[in-house]
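[job 4471] stage=fold_predict status=RUNNING
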Amino acid sequence: MKKTWIKGAGLGLLTVAAVWSATSAFASIGSAAPQRAEVKRSSFRYEPSCSVEEAEFVLREYDGCIGVFSPQSEDGPITVTDIELRSLREADREIVRNGLAVADREELLSLLEDFGS
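[job 4471] inference complete, writing structure tokens
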């Protein structure tokens, strides 16, 4: 009888410890997530590498996707990517909508890789 009581008490203690650990873990996840998101939004800054006049390419919205345009031409895009604006963060969408000046082909490929991932 004494062994049963000891086993029951030990099992109860372990159950209380497990519930307390799970509650603490869930509480810390819920309170930490919004704080990280706020830091990202408030610390975001965009510095263009060149002006539109100096750019080799300009990224702009075209039919809901990112289009690659020549800054010297008013014609349609040179090419249209399959990267949809709705898949981007709001800050990136706004930058592309306003026109993103791109200095050279290397920067173009890097930006498209970043936007596409």
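[job 4471] summary: The chain has a mean pLDDT of 80.
[job 4471] exit 0
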